[in-house]
Amino acid sequence: MYAYDELDRTIINERVTEFRDQVKRRLSGELTEDEFKMLRLQNGVYLQLHAYMFRVAIPYGTLSTKQLRALAHVARRYDRGYGHFTTRQNIQFNWIKLAELPDALADLAEVGIHAMQTSGNNTRNVTSDQWAGVAPGEVEDPRIWSELLRQYTTLHPEFSFLPRKFKFAITASDHDRAAIKVHDIGLRLYKNAEGETGFEVLVGGGLGRTPFIGKTIKPFVHGHDLLSYVEAILRVYNQYGRRDNIYKARIKILVHELGIDKFAQEVEEEWLQMRDSALAIDDAVIEDIRSRFSYPTYEKLPHMPDELKKAAHDPHFEAWRKNSVFPHKVPGYAIVTLSLKPVGGPPGDATADQMDAIADLAEKYSFGEIRVGHEQNLALPHVARRDLPVLWKALDKIGVATPNVNLVSDIIACPGLDYCSLANARSIPIAQELTRRFANHETANMIGRLHVNISGCINACGHHHVGHIGILGVEKNGEEFYQITIGGRADEKAEVGTLIGPAVPYGEVADVVEDIVEAYLALRERPDELFIDAVKRLGVEPFRERVYATR
Amino acid sequence: MPLVKHGKITSDTLVHVADDAEIPGDGAILIPAARFLEDPEGLSRRVGRTGVIWPNNRDVDDLVPYLDRLAVIALMFPTFRDGRAYSQARLLRERHGFKGELRATGQVLRDQFVFMLRAGFDAFEVKKESDAEAFAATVKRYSVFYQPTGDGRLTALHRRMQLRHSESASQ
User: Fold this and answer.
1) Is 70 exceeded by the pLDDT of residue B169?
2) Which of B83, B116, B157 minimises the CB distance to A238?
3) Which residue of B147, B154, B164 to mutate against A (max A Cβ within 10 Å)?
4) Which end of chain B is more exposed for a tag (fewer CB within 10 A), N or C?
5) Domain housing B64
6) What is the ipTM of this complex?
7) Distances (CA, A) of A243 to A33, A164, A413, A522, B164
């Protein structure tokens, strides 16, 4: 956990005071809605179909029990008793009243949580691997650098009015769980031949209506130079990014129009003039941030304790353990993913009661720490393996032990037309229907790893481009239609999916997905050839044939 | 549009010269970039103080040869959503060492004051009277800053390091 100090807390409190003044000026009419819009967006407040939506940041996906309880409190006191975890380590509340927002923010500020820059054309919440600090084989904890970037990007005096939003993601593992290749800046931490920590810097990735996979702008930027290099990128973008057309304003378009080499050259020229400025980070600063991350004192525990051996006779426990429990860097411990994808439920939602219960369990079994992943699930990062059986019972009781992690019903979905004023089509009911179709865990297991991502419009909040199966809602003559892509992925081999054919109506989406899955089962070479690998080998044609032969 | 300088509302001593008006030989003036660039040498040597309104889509490098002879550079915020002038301001102050008045003009609201001060602005043509009046209070909204800029405010990182040193010294 990172402990905010007096300085961090002061900024958060000062931001609350500022926002309170902004809300007051809006309510009194001193600010027009147009003026207020930009100000509220800078603090995570959207106007949705039914009400204001409030997006709160969970930097690099790390939460303490106190913080999770505060989120539960906000859900209960100011909303309708639940919250929605997003694909960018944020949580959204959908029914907040404008006049009460400053109080909700003040309550969150007490536990070091804020909503700064969770929307608007600025640098957004810095995201990272939800297994940071505990994943086996990780180079080092990327959250140290995430926190450095969080501070650097918070209320930046030069980059708070960029052409468009700007997202950072960091990973320090070979397997990328942070989707760095679909971020404006993606950072892959590694050590060079001299053993120095630095980053491969990727730029210009992003989804939306023009998806791009990020390109490497510099293969190695030394940790000392991270902030100056990032500032150079942001300065070039702030000055030359397009502002005439909102759909062409992301940095990916600038990189695409200039070409990566020319863009890299512009950045390099800018950077060389400031790399030795006050932005150069010395080791003492990094150590200072590192020192405020606390790590559990792990016990020496057996890998196969009696409790686990005994529980292995219970097939329900075993199904969950095999699906939702992952290796930890410390022997005797495990990382446990909590599925927020129950059969028939909206993906990523958690009730206030669930949040409180999870906080209690984290206190008891995970050294008081909870993680939020971009797949819209939670994780307990430090669970002693001997506690798995008792933890499982408790998680199952509150409905977050569905053994479908990484399986076909572990769906990523945006709020869609049920909430969002931008959406063309519903996302949640499609996800719900799919979880019902694939409710049988044996079948889902047999299918294996398969990511279905659903967006209700071209803005791609549900990351449909990088779903193994991607579903995009569009509107045709006033009706909801859905384009289906396959072969997308968001990890280290990130790729944008390929459209398989004409859009299909709402009522047929689940059938189409079933057809695709059946085609895959018939075509795979062996049971462990994953869907995504089969699509890579075969191309989309056999899937297209299967889906459209009868349509 | 009230002008705020040195934290107070003051009267603007610069005469804003319109595109087609004659430029007076002396007296303080503020002229559009295009006018200035017609005769930058002559204009920057005129007797009175000369200021230029510089658009936010033009490289400030073009101004560099004349910086020590310009009294004022006014940078534009066509809407407060358009943040290009923040970069221009920092470049003028921090890279090119501009010492004159750096004025923010356009849609300037109180919610930008702190950012603008940190970027190097020291004069503000504020859109609303109420925002101009709130200047002194608004700039005190923040007491902690994460980023180093040319305004010299200590960053949180440096304050922490100082704190550490003083703690270790007192032990």
Assistant:
1) no
2) B83
3) B147
4) C
5) 3-140
6) 0.96
7) 21, 8, 29, 49, 44
